[in-house]
Write a structure and sequence with these properties.
Layout: E1 2-3, E2 6-8, E3 11-13, E4 20-25, E5 30-36, H1 40-58, H2 62-78, H3 80-91, H4 95-116, E6 124-127, E7 131-139, E8 142-146, H5 152-165, E9 169-173, H6 180-192, E10 199-201, H7 206-215, E11 219-225, H8 228-241, E12 244-248, E13 254-257, H9 263-275, E14 287-291, H10 295-306, H11 327-342, E15 346-349, E16 353-356, E17 359-365, E18 368-371, E19 388-394, H12 397-404, E20 409-410, E21 412-416, H13 420-429, E22 434-437, E23 452-453, E24 456-457, H14 462-468, E25 470-478
Parallel strand pairs: 1-5, 8-9, 8-11, 9-10, 11-12, 13-14, 13-21, 14-19, 18-19, 21-22
Antiparallel strand pairs: 2-3, 4-5, 6-7, 7-25, 12-24, 15-18, 16-17, 20-23
Length: 479
């Protein structure tokens, strides 16, 4: 059975204690590889490697850093098929999704930040009294990047790219649930000639390897994407040492549909925004609010679309929804369907675990639609993170804004209307870090990404990410 290895100081090595964790193929429900069960000792080794590499890497000319990163991006493109296959196998998502979204975006992340550092400028201010001020943006040192399981290589590269582009060295931990593409990525870094110690990848549990990264007194900043409860723990630990942190956490996103929308485009996109990646995207619109006058029309059309939305093995060309990422997660999502029934909801589509021929032990579930629930019940307030959506009718803008803003989250929202004035009014009043109008999941890498309330702290994307991984220093000179 294949054993994944840590990537420390430019080499692929076992964890110090040589203990391993089972890695499951969710489409089959079978162990297919082993992950290092790394701990504090492995993190210490990675941090030491980063410290030793920092002086050289931070003083490497930007153009040279960019060249190495662009070589890594080229290698992602050259190994696209292998990486996409590994992502689908490890995560359970359809191969077409990994091929068309996850792997191309990983390459784009690297390219974007590799070239962004060539265009970053510092501030300069002249004072009439005979003084000039200018600002230096200096890398922090060794930083920690912890990424989630839902978009494994996509979000892994989204974090490490701005960190190493800025001249930092990184200790990164991918999710122990989906480690394979990070492991393959480490091989590409070696092939590309990334200097030893610039990027170190430590595999293991969040409670051991992840905690060791967050708590390490020589790691200067933490960039984390994951659940809100884990983010809360990380925030407390970072506060003890005033460590910089960027937290991209949970969401319970509203999808607001007005009667004057482009109906066909809305239905097509809403199907995607509800069930893409088995609903395991923090940006999925899990609460669908429909203007009362088109509620029945929407419901009929939406359920008809779902009839042809095939759930199956990730490698079947007809599959549009693959397996959920783990048995535990499947059970959690199914428990929310039962909760919805207890709260008075009616399941009008799906709601059940599925048995797929040839993959009988896989973690499959029907896309699920529920109606009849109040906006403030637990099902409509807590993040489910699976293929479950609720339908709620509304009459007025004020009413739907109350519903939409009622949760402790505020990551994203989608608004469907052809009325530009209404679109801007609603966008201004939504408690969301991102608002899509008449579209969903359109991402410009230059724009800020992040949420409000319990959806996180800080913003990723563009120069904001480069700024996070650097410290501004003001220099004032008399003349």
């Amino acid at each position: 059975m294949q054993k994944i290895e840590n990537y420390i100081n430019g080499e692929l090595i076992s964890s110090i204690k040589e203990q391993y964790i089972d890695n499951y193929n969710p489409s089959k429900g079978e162990v297919y590889s082993l992950i290092p069960n790394s701990d504090k000792d492995d993190v210490d080794l990675a941090v030491k490697a980063g410290e030793e590499a920092f002086a050289s890497w931070s003083s490497t000319p930007k153009v040279k850093r960019a060249e190495i990163m662009l070589k890594i991006a080229d290698l992602i493109d050259e190994n696209h098929k292998e990486l996409a296959h590994a992502e689908a196998l490890d995560n359970g998502k359809p191969l077409f999704l990994a091929s068309h979204v996850d792997i191309p975006r990983a390459s784009s992340n690297i390219r974007f930040f590799a070239t962004a550092i060539m265009h970053n400028a510092n501030e300069s201010y002249h004072m009439e009294e005979g003084f000039n001020n200018y600002t230096l943006s200096q890398p922090l040192g060794v930083v920690g990047c912890i990424s989630p399981w839902n978009l494994p290589l996509y979000l892994f590269t989204w974090k490490i790219a701005p960190a190493i582009a800025s001249g930092n060295c990184v200790v990164a931990k991918p999710s122990e649930v989906t480690p394979m593409t990070a492991y393959l990525f480490s091989k590409l870094c070696i092939e590309a000639g990334l200097p030893k110690g610039v990027l170190n990848i430590v595999h293991g549990l969040g409670s051991s390897a992840g905690d060791a990264i967050v708590s390490h007194n020589k790691i200067k900043a933490i960039s984390f994407t994951g659940g809100t409860n884990t983010g809360r723990i990380i925030a407390r630990k970072c506060a003890e040492t005033f460590k910089k942190m960027s937290l991209e956490l949970g969401g319970k996103n509203p999808n607001i549909i007005f009667a004057d929308c482009d109906f066909d485009n809305m239905i097509k996109t809403t199907l995607q925004s509800s069930f893409a990646n088995q609903g395991q995207i923090c940006l999925c619109g899990s609460r669908i609010f429909i203007e009362q006058s088109i509620y029945e029309k929407f419901k009929t059309a939406f359920l008809a679309k779902l009839e042809t939305h095939t759930v199956g093995n990730p490698f079947d060309e007809k599959t549009r929804m693959g397996a959920l990422v783990s048995k535990d997660h499947l059970e959690k999502v199914l428990s929310y369907v039962e909760l919805a029934k207890e709260e008075g909801g009616t399941v009008i589509f799906g709601g059940n675990k599925l048995i797929i021929e040839g993959s009988e032990n896989g973690y499959y579930m029907e896309p699920t639609v529920i109606e009849g629930l109040p906006y403030n019940c637990r099902t409509n307030q807590e993040e489910i993170f699976g293929p479950v959506v609720t339908l709620i009718p509304f009459e007025t803008e004020e009413e739907v804004l109350t519903y939409a803003n009622s949760t402790p989250y505020g990551l994203s929202a989608t608004v469907w209307t052809e009325n530009i004035s209404r679109a801007q009014r609603i966008a201004n009043k939504l408690d969301s870090g991102i608002v899509w109008v008449n579209c969903w999941l359109v991402r410009d890498l230059r724009t800020p990404f992040g949420g409000v309330k319990q959806s996180g702290l800080g913003r990723e994307g563009g120069f904001r990410a480069l700024n996070f991984f650097t410290e501004p220093k003001n220099v004032c000179m008399a003349y």
